[in-house]
């Protein structure tokens, strides 16, 4: 799912490796490989956009773990990507690289280049357009991050912290960023609360603070149906002047019928800046599973912004 945010570009993310395909399992050592691929043709929503081919995903990663005892493992994960700005890159790049400690009772702890917790936020089973969450596309990935995850069945929580001592992001070496979430599953419901905050100490935005918050709910009490709702807040606190807060409400639903999955979503964003009009976004799609973990899809989407029109696209994606 795409994440869109209404904040200054920070630097963060959360990611755990999928189980993938097991390559090796002997004497307490396991090696799994995971991969994601997606190729599509997409016409954007801007007036005059043309139908173009995009390679959205071309990634593979290796998850190696060593058993310390019956309940604890230490692991090393490295992920590569061959895509940059929806095009195949001439050289593969490193996406995530981290060391992890995993315990059946106390959860997991990771250190390295990884996605932080707010990367988990967002509703809707979209492929191309999606709905707004925090607004303005934002990458929650950091080279200098730590992340802790705990899942006890009904209750779950995560926390992440990142620095920018190498000054490769907008935070600056004296800046800071953290995000967290807490959730509870009961009956057919799943509720999650998110919070994140960045303090920038670099260049023209030194002294600016950004706070992101979200509440999400998922209901799966109807067979083959998923209903989702989310509220998102993005507050910018400048060094001088008044705070500005943007708010988004989003709804999404999907229905699965045999190999078919149909999904739709709608969001409304209200800006604190009086010069910006309220933004409505929507999408509608259908996906068909042609093989295990392989889906072909078609999607349309749009918004009520100036010089916008209905966008559309088709594609195929696979993961293991």
Structural summary, described in words:
The chain has strands at residues 5-6, 21-26, 29-43, 52-67, 72-84, 87-103, 107-115, 134-135, 141-151, 155-162, 176-186, 189-199, 209-219, 225-237, 244-257, 260-270, 279-291, 294-303, 311-319. It has 320 residues and is mainly β. Strands 3-4-5-6-7-9-10-11-12-13-14-15-16-17-18-19 form a 16-stranded antiparallel β-barrel. Strands 1-8 form a two-stranded parallel ribbon.
Label this structure with key terms.
320 residues; globular; two-stranded parallel sheet; ion transport; Porin_dom_sf; disordered N terminus; membrane; mainly beta; 16-stranded antiparallel barrel; Porin; 0% helix; Gram_neg_porin_domain; Putative OMPH_PHOPR Porin-like protein H
Which secondary structure elements does this structure contain, and how are they paired or packed?
Layout: E1 5-6, E2 21-26, E3 29-43, E4 52-67, E5 72-84, E6 87-103, E7 107-115, E8 134-135, E9 141-151, E10 155-162, E11 176-186, E12 189-199, E13 209-219, E14 225-237, E15 244-257, E16 260-270, E17 279-291, E18 294-303, E19 311-319
Percentage of β-strand residues: over 45%
Structural class: mainly beta
Mean pLDDT: 90
What is the helical fraction, as a range of percent?
A: under 10%
**Gross CATH architecture:** Beta Barrel
Overall shape: globular
User: Can you identify the CATH superfamily?
Assistant: Porin
Give the tally of β-strands: 19
Residue stretches low in confidence (pLDDT < 50, at least 5 long) are 1-18
Strand order of the largest sheet: 3-4-5-6-7-9-10-11-12-13-14-15-16-17-18-19
Order of helices and strands: EEEEEEEEEEEEEEEEEEE
Into how many domains do the coordinates divide?
1
Distance between the termini: 17 Å
CATH topology: Porin
Level-1 CATH class name:
Mainly Beta
Count of alpha/pi helices? 0
Largest pleated sheet: 16 strands, antiparallel, barrel
Radius of gyration over all CA atoms, rounded: 20 Å
Organism: Vibrio tapetis subsp. tapetis
Membrane topology: Multi-pass membrane protein
Subcellular location: Cell outer membrane
Keywords: Cell outer membrane, Ion transport, Membrane, Porin, Signal, Transmembrane, Transmembrane beta strand, Transport
């Amino acid at each position: 799912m795409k994440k869109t945010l209404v904040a200054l570009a920070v630097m963060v993310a959360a990611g755990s490796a999928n189980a993938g395909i097991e390559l090796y399992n002997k004497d307490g050592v396991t090696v799994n490989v995971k991969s994601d691929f997606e190729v599509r043709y997409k016409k954007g929503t801007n007036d005059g956009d043309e139908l173009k081919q995009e390679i959205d995903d071309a990634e593979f990663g290796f998850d190696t773990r060593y058993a310390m005892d019956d309940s604890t493992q230490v692991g090393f994960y490295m992920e590569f990507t061959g895509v940059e700005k929806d095009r195949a890159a001439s050289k593969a790049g490193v996406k995530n690289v981290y060391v992890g400690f995993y315990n059946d009772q106390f959860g997991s702890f990771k250190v390295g280049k990884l996605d932080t917790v707010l990367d988990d936020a967002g509703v809707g089973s979209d492929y191309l357009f999606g709905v707004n969450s925090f607004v303005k596309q934002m990458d929650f990935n950091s080279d200098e991050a730590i992340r802790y995850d705990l899942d006890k069945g009904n209750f779950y929580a995560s926390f992440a912290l990142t620095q920018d001592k190498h000054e490769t992001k907008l935070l600056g070496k004296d800046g800071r960023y953290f995000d967290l979430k807490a959730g509870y599953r009961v009956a057919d419901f799943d509720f999650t609360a998110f919070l994140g905050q960045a303090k920038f100490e670099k260049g023209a935005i030194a002294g600016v603070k950004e706070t992101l918050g979200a509440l999400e709910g998922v209901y799966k009490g109807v067979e083959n149906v998923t209903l989702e709702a989310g509220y998102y807040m993005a507050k910018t606190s400048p060094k001088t002047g008044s705070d500005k807060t943007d708010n988004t409400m989003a709804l999404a639903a999907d229905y699965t019928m045999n190999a078919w999955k149909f999904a739709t979503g709608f969001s409304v964003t209200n800006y604190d800046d009086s010069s910006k009009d309220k933004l409505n976004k929507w999408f509608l799609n259908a996906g068909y599973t042609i093989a295990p973990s392989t889906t072909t899809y078609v999607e349309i989407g749009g918004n009520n912004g100036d010089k916008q029109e209905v966008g559309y696209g088709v594609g195929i994606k696979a993961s293991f």
